[in-house]
Each structure stands twice: as structure tokens, then as C-alpha cells.
Design goal:
Elements: H1 10-15, H2 17-50, H3 54-103, H4 106-111, H5 114-156, H6 158-164, H7 168-205, H8 207-212, H9 216-268, H10 274-286, H11 288-315, H12 325-331, E1 340-353, E2 363-378, E3 383-387, H13 394-399, E4 412-414, E5 417-418, H14 424-429, E6 431-434, H15 445-449, H16 458-467, H17 471-475, H18 494-506, E7 512-516, H19 524-537, E8 542-546, H20 550-553, E9 558-563, E10 566-571, H21 573-579, H22 582-598
Parallel strand pairs: 3-8, 3-9, 6-7, 7-8
Antiparallel strand pairs: 1-2, 1-4, 4-5, 9-10
Helix pairs in contact: 2-3, 2-5, 2-10, 3-5, 5-6, 5-7, 5-10, 5-11, 6-9, 7-9, 7-11, 9-10, 9-11, 16-18
């Protein structure tokens, strides 16, 4: 199971094959000098039996220093190259993960928790980086030194080498046993870490709501429960790791006892010289760290592959909305005039279930239709207003134009062409969309207005701010357009956030402008000013806006009334009043409210 989750990393490793080659050479040189060390000691011990001079002592001391220095140099190069590569792959993997997340459709984010995604992009990615760096480095050192040491140990005494490695089969069984359980427990730990991250993210984002409802203690208690569960899952892994390393050390200690016992008998019987015995035991001592590192590497490998499996679950997600490769080149130069047509449109959302704890949802189930047989045509350069009760499908309808959700082929057309014949980039660059839920980034007012327009000038930003009627408010801020708005526009009022969002759409000079109830938080006087400004800016361009106010929609070229996913009324303001239907009722109700307010 673990090894299969390692395969997605191979393309990244292949990219740095030259670095791995130089790292391998450094590993071989590093361990080559480490293997030479006991052989030098063997010669020193043999010379001691024969008698030594000051010159020989100086020679051997200098040789030991030279070997140690060379080993230190190549050990540094090994760490610098291999761990450096792991950082480079971490950089590539993080960019690819972010790029892939940017391509995924809205449905993925509706099904997935932000905290879970963040946990995979941080904690899991760090575990993968550790796998690609220290784990590979220590594994390579362990294999290289063990093979080299085994070769010379066999030459010194094949019989003693056999005794020394008698505990090896037991160690292999223990490694397999512990490795499988470490992998399973770490996956459960990471799933709970995702839950904790999601809870923390929701609490930080909803801090004002939590305070407003006096739910601080309840949320703290909930976080503590999740944290305790995380600890309860982590403790068995800690106990397992606490058993793994001592067990391997016991195996190594047992091997050392066998070597001292059998080796001593070999020396007494004159079947092994003292220098060879000292060299052999030195090899055994030097093997201590590689064996201990083996337990650490097993832990890192199991953690890293479990984390890579979680990251790969996201990378394997395919965006439900994507360009048709056969049409991208054809539509790349397309110019949009702005005619929009819904042709017999029926649309339903997919419902997706979460298959397992902490996993990315994959299973899709069809939902009930939200829109039913909608047929509308909006001429280029005209305006369409959409009204209707809550849940009638208004937002869903306009979201199909920039393909935030995807309708069936041939049901949505722009300029007489099916919408899927336009690349997403071509389509969305010519649409200004202000969604119902306003989102501002944690940057300046200027940065939020200029979002989506490269190298926007101060004049363009000021003009867009004038149209949306946010300019006067901004001029009253201490730092004007350089004022930081806080996370999600925390420092701005609801109306100010909506007007910044409108300015962000207007500055793009789109062929199609969509306002999804984007004036709900502004007063009627400001609304009139904004609509007048938009009529001037969008002259010759197509405008679609959703609103619950008759004052907002009455001057639109056409008004469509949606009810239960169907167009039940369509026409101008006067034509709809004459029908004495839903629109007339909405008009009369709002007139009565205005009279009561002024009374």
C-alpha cells in the first residue's frame, strides 16, 4: 500500500536525476571513507604488535585525520545535495498543488473543507519533503555502508559475519510489522489533523459571529474534544515508535554480544588476529547508527507515503468544468459581442458524498432540477433583470454564463455559439461577475479593485470607484486607496464591500456584466447613482442583474420572473405590471412599504 503511494513522486524525482546522481556519488564517497576507517585501525593494531616508531605514529594519525576530513566533506555534500533536492521538489509540488487547486471547479470547494485542504498543503507536504530528503539520504547511507561493511567483514571472518547477522531475519519481520501499523495510524492522525485545521479556520473566520452568540466557551470545548481525540490517536503511534527503536537496538546489541563471544574465542584460538577482531567490532559499532536510522526512516517513509496519498487524492481530482482541447485553439481569438441565449435549459446540481474520514469526496449522485426548460434571449448591448422568490434559481442561471457551473451542451449560447466552444480564459476575461456573496482579499482597496487587471492605472481605478460610488468613501479613509481592508473586507461595511466588488468588475470593461443581487446592501439613493453610472459605462454592452427591488429592475430593457426554476413572466416593466402576476404583487408591496416609511 505504501509503495503504490510513492509512485506519484517519481516524475518529480526524475526531473532532478542529475542532482540525485551527484548525491549518489557523494554517498558512495562518504561511506567509502567510513568503511576505510576500521581498516586503518586494523593496520594500526597490527603495527602495535610489531613495534612502532614516532614516524609511523605520526603517519597513522595524519591518515586518520585525512580520512575523517574527507568523510566530513562528502557527508556535507551528501546533505547539501539530497536535502536541497527535497526542497526543490517541495517547491515544485506545492506550486503544482496550488495550480491544480486553482483549476478545480466550484463544486469541489463546496464539498471540501478549507481546513482539510490547508492541512494537505502544509502538514502533509512537509511530511513528503522529509521523505524525499532525510529518508532517502539516510536510506542510501545505510545501504551503502552496510553493503561495504559486510564485504570487508566477510573477508575478515565469514563465520563471525554469519553469527553477527543472525538476528537480521527477526529485525526484518519486526520492521514489516511496525511499518504497516505506523502507516495506518498516521493516516488516521492526519485525518483528525484536517478536522482540527477546519475547525480552527472556521472559528477564526467566524470570530465575530461566535462572539455575537456568546459561543466562545462552546467552541473552545469543541476544539478541546477534537484536540483530545488527536492526542488519543497520536499516543498509540508514539508508543509504537517507542517500541521500534529500542527493539532494533536490542537486535543490534544481541548481535554485538554474539560477535564479542565468538570473536573472542576466534582470537584465543588464533584463527583471527587481534587487528582483524578490532576492525570487525569497529564495523559493528559503526553499524549502530544505520540500524537506528533504519527505524527512523521507516517512520518517515510511512508518514510520507500516507501524506503523499492524501495529496494525490487532490491531484487526481479532475475539474468538472474544463476546456475542450479540440476547441481551445479555434476559440482563442474569439471576440464576444454579448448576445446571450438560454435554449430549453434544464439544470441540476450533482450531490457528492464523502466516502471516508478525511478523504476527498468522489462519489456523485444526481440532484433534483433547479432550472426547468428556461428559454431566454438577451440581445447584445441590452440589459436583462431577473427577479423571483428565494430559491427560484436566479443565481444558478447567471452562474452558467461564465461556466461557474456547467449546463448541458447546447443549452447556453453566446453570440449564437454554444458556450463550450469558447475557452474558459476567453469567456471569463470578457465577463464581469459580482456574486451574491461578496469576497474581498486581505489587501488594499486598490489591490481589490485592480484584481484581474494587470498594470491597472490610478485613473482606471478612480474611474471604476466613481462608477460604483465607493470613491467618496475611500477618500475619507486615512490611507485612501492604500487602506488595508482586512480578511474578507472585515473593516468595510456590507455596502462598501459590494461597491468595491462592483468597481472590480467594472474596471475590466467587460462585454457582459453580471450583478447577482450586488446592490442589496446599499440604500436606494446610492443604488440610483450606481445604476446611472453603469448605464453609461455599459452602453453597447450586455448587463444582467438580479434584484429583489423593483426600483433596481424597472429600467431594464427586459425583466424575467423566475419561479420554481421556470420563467413565468417576461417583458418590460409596464408589460409585467399589466399581467397582474408575481411582478405586480412585488411592485405593489414595495410601494406600500415606501408609503409606510414616509408616513
Amino acid at each position: 500500500m505504501s509503495s503504490s503511494k510513492f509512485w506519484p513522486l517519481l516524475p518529480y524525482m526524475r526531473k532532478y536525476w542529475k542532482g540525485y546522481l551527484s548525491g549518489t556519488l557523494s554517498v558512495l564517497c562518504n561511506n567509502g571513507f567510513a568503511i576505510v576507517w576500521p581498516l586503518v585501525i586494523r593496520r594500526i593494531v597490527q603495527d602495535l604488535d610489531l613495534g612502532v616508531t614516532h614516524e609511523k605514529v605520526l603517519y597513522w594519525c595524519l591518515l586518520l585525520v585525512a580520512v575523517a576530513t574527507a568523510k566530513g566533506v562528502f557527508q556535507y555534500l551528501t546533505r547539501w545535495v539530497l536535502i536541497g533536492i527535497s526542497r526543490e521538489i517541495e517547491f515544485d509540488l506545492r506550486n503544482d498543488l496550488f495550480r491544480h487547486l486553482e483549476k478545480l471547479d466550484t463544486g469541489f470547494y463546496q464539498r471540501s473543507r478549507t481546513g482539510d485542504i490547508m492541512a494537505r498543503a502544509t502538514n502533509d507536504l512537509n511530511a513528503v519533503r522529509t521523505l524525499l530528503g532525510p529518508a532517502i539520504m539516510y536510506s542510501a547511507n545505510t545501504v551503502a555502508f552496510t553493503v561495504g561493511a559486510l564485504f570487508f567483514m566477510t573477508r575478515i571472518s565469514p563465520r563471525l559475519t554469519l553469527f553477527a547477522f543472525l538476528p537480521l531475519p527477526i529485525a526484518s519481520i519486526l520492521v514489516q510489522y511496525f511499518g504497516t501499523r505506523i502507516h495506518e495510524r498516521f493516516e488516521r492522525i492526519q485525518a483528525k489533523f484536517s478536522d482540527i485545521s477546519a475547525r480552527a479556520q472556521e472559528n477564526f473566520s467566524g470570530a465575530r459571529l461566535i462572539r455575537a452568540y456568546a459561543q466562545e466557551e462552546a467552541e473552545i470545548a469543541g476544539f478541546e474534544r477534537d484536540n483530545r481525540d488527536y492526542i488519543q490517536r497520536s499516543l498509540p503511534l508514539a508508543r509504537l515508535m517507542g517500541m521500534l527503536w529500542p527493539t532494533l537496538e536490542v537486535m543490534l546489541g544481541l548481535a554485538m554480544v554474539i560477535v564479542l563471544w565468538q570473536g573472542g574465542r576466534e582470537v584465543i584460538a588464533h584463527r583471527l588476529d587481534l587487528g582483524g577482531f578490532v576492525a570487525f567490532t569497529t564495523y559493528m559499532v559503526l553499524l549502530t547508527w544505520p540500524v537506528i536510522a533504519l527505524g527512523w526512516v521507516i517512520n518517515i517513509f510511512q508518514r510520507g507515503t500516507a501524506s503523499m496519498g492524501r495529496i494525490d487524492e487532490i491531484l487526481q481530482q479532475q475539474p468538472a468544468i474544463a476546456d475542450d482541447p479540440a476547441l481551445v485553439q479555434v476559440s482563442g481569438e474569439a471576440e464576444i459581442r454579448g448576445e446571450i441565449e438560454f435554449r430549453g435549459l434544464t439544470f441540476a446540481y450533482d450531490r457528492r458524498s464523502r466516502p471516508a474520514e478525511g478523504a476527498v469526496p468522489l462519489q456523485a449522485e444526481p440532484g433534483a432540477p433547479v432550472l426547468r426548460e428556461v428559454s431566454l434571449k438577451v440581445p447584445a448591448g441590452s440589459s436583462l433583470a431577473i427577479v423571483g422568490p428565494t430559491g427560484s434559481g436566479k443565481s444558478t442561471l447567471v452562474s452558467l454564463i461564465p461556466r461557474i457551473h456547467d449546463a448541458a451542451p447546447g443549452m447556453v449560447l453566446i453570440d449564437g455559439r454554444p458556450i463550450r466552444e469558447y475557452s474558459l480564459d476567453t469567456l471569463r476575461r470578457q465577463i464581469g461577475f459580482v456574486p451574491q456573496e461578496t469576497f474581498l482579499f486581505s489587501t488594499t482597496v486598490r489591490g481589490n479593485i485592480a484584481f484581474g487587471v494587470e498594470n491597472a492605472t490610478d485613473e482606471q481605478i478612480a474611474r471604476a470607484a466613481e462608477v460604483s460610488r465607493i470613491a467618496l468613501d475611500v477618500e475619507g479613509f486615512p490611507e485612501k486607496y492604500q487602506t488595508m481592508v482586512g480578511e474578507r473586507g472585515l473593516t468595510l461595511s456590507g455596502g462598501q464591500k459590494q461597491r468595491v466588488a462592483i468597481a472590480r468588475a467594472v474596471i475590466r470593461e467587460p462585454r457582459i456584466l453580471i450583478l447577482d443581487d450586488a446592490l442589496a446592501s446599499v440604500d436606494t439613493q446610492t443604488e440610483d447613482h450606481i445604476l446611472n453610472g453603469l448605464r453609461e459605462v455599459m452602453q453597447g454592452r450586455t448587463t444582467i442583474f438580479i434584484s429583489h427591488r423593483v426600483s433596481t429592475v424597472r429600467n431594464a430593457d427586459r425583466i424575467a420572473v423566475l419561479h420554481d426554476g421556470r420563467v413565468v413572466e417576461y417583458g418590460t416593466h409596464d408589460e409585467l405590471l399589466a399581467l397582474n402576476g408575481y411582478y405586480t404583487g412585488l411592485h405593489d408591496k414595495q410601494l406600500l412599504e415606501e408609503e409606510l416609511e414616509t408616513a
